[in-house]
Amino acid sequence: MKNSENFALNQWLSDYPENMSYEDILEIMRTEENTWKCEEISVWEAVENFTLDQVSEFIEDTKSAFERATKNMREVTA
Predict the structure, then answer these.
(1) CB atoms within 10 A of CB 6
(2) CA-CA distance, 53 to 35, in Å (whole number)?
(3) What whole-number distance in Å separates Cα of residue 62 and Cα of residue 43?
(4) Are 14 and 46 in contact (CB under 8 A)?
(5) Are 27 and 41 a contacting pair, CB within 8 Å?
(6) Which helix or strand (DSSP H or E) is residue 9 part of?
(7) How many other β-carbons are positioned within 10 Å of the β-carbon of residue 35?
(8) pLDDT (0 to 100) of residue 71
(9) What is the gyration radius of the CA atoms in the chain, in angstroms?
């Protein structure tokens, strides 16, 4: 798993299977049967009133922001 993916997951999830890929975690979260909760995945209290699909969007946005920020840092230090 990429650093940006790990960072994003940890910002929004308090627990998830460590042996599962980033893509698989998001796929499970976006499954209709897991609209509000999933046995293997727990969200932080701050977002427990959001659907898992919405939280998956927060995760994707956080991953993108992380990648933009670290790209900018690499360009400045190069």
Answers:
(1) 14
(2) 7
(3) 15
(4) no
(5) no
(6) helix 3-12
(7) 13
(8) 85
(9) 13
pLDDT on residue 24: 97
Each of the 78 residues of the chain gets a pLDDT tens digit; together they read 999 999 999 999 999 999 999 999 999 999 999 999 999 999 999 999 999 999 999 999 999 999 999 986 666 665
Token readout for 52 is 């898992």
CA distances from 73 to 14, 39, 66, 69, 76 (A): 28, 38, 11, 6, 5
Residue 12 corresponds to which tokens in the numbers above?
A: 């929004």
Residue 32 tokens, joined: 């209709």
Q: How far apart are the first and last CA of the chain?
A: 25
Residue 54, both tokens: 């919405």
CB atoms under 10 Å from CB of 49, counted, come to 9
